[in-house]
Specification:
Ribosomal Protein L30, Chain: A, 3 strands, globular, three-stranded antiparallel beta sheet, about 30% helix, 2 helices, alpha+beta
């Protein structure tokens, strides 16, 4: 499963969010609105994405 990648984009602002959600977004490597990062598809990353899914756009990349 780790050979798959996820393309994660921040589509909603971190301003006004609870501290743990801002920290989770930072942990995913996202700093700015509309920034995109490519991450390994691991259970840990999936859990972080699930926590702040309302702020993200996620696509699977081959």
């Amino acid at each position: 499963m780790a050979d798959k990648k996820l393309k994660v984009t921040l589509i909603r602002s971190k301003i006004g969010r609870i501290r743990s959600h801002r920290a989770t977004v930072a942990g995913l490597g996202l700093r700015r609105m509309h920034q995109t990062v490519i991450l390994d598809d691991t259970p840990e990353i999936r859990g972080m994405i699930r926590k702040v899914a309302y702020m993200l756009n996620v696509e699977e990349v081959e």
